[in-house]
C-alpha cells in the first residue's frame, strides 16, 4: 500500500527518523536515498554517494539528539 516516497518521508521525518522500520526496509530506503539522481545528466559516483551518506548520518544524529532532548525543534 505504501510506496518508496512514503518510506523516505518516514525515514527523513525528524519525528520518526525511521523508528520501527525493519533493518532490511531501512537499508533499502537508505540505498534509494543515496542513489537518487540529481538530474538526467549528473552521474551517480562514489564521491557523491559518500557525501550524501555523510549528510544523512549527520542529520540522523542531530535529529536523534533533538528528539531525546525533546527540544522545541522536535
Notes on the structure:
It is a single chain. This protein is mostly helical. The chain has one domain (4-69). The protein has helices at 4-12, 23-35, 46-69.
Q: What percent strand?
A: under 5%
- Which overall shape is indicated by the principal axes computed on the Cα atoms? globular
- Which structural class fits the helix and strand makeup? mainly alpha
Total helix count? 3
Q: Helix share of residues?
A: 55-70%
Count of discrete domains:
1
N-to-C order of helices and strands:
HHH
Structure summary, number of beta strands: 0
Distance between the termini: 28 Å
Q: Mean pLDDT, nearest integer?
A: 88
Summarize the main sheet: none
> Spans with pLDDT under 50 lasting ≥5 residues?
none
Radius of gyration: 14 Å
Amino acid at each position: 500500500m505504501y510506496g518508496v516516497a512514503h518510506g523516505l518521508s518516514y525515514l527523513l521525518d525528524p519525528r520518526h527518523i525511521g523508528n520501527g522500520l525493519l533493518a532490511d526496509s531501512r537499508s533499502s530506503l537508505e540505498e534509494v536515498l543515496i542513489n537518487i539522481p540529481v538530474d538526467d545528466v549528473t552521474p551517480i559516483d562514489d564521491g557523491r554517494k559518500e557525501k550524501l551518506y555523510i549528510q544523512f548520518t549527520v542529520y540522523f544524529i542531530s535529529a536523534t539528539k533533538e528528539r531525546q532532548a525533546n527540544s522545541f525543534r522536535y
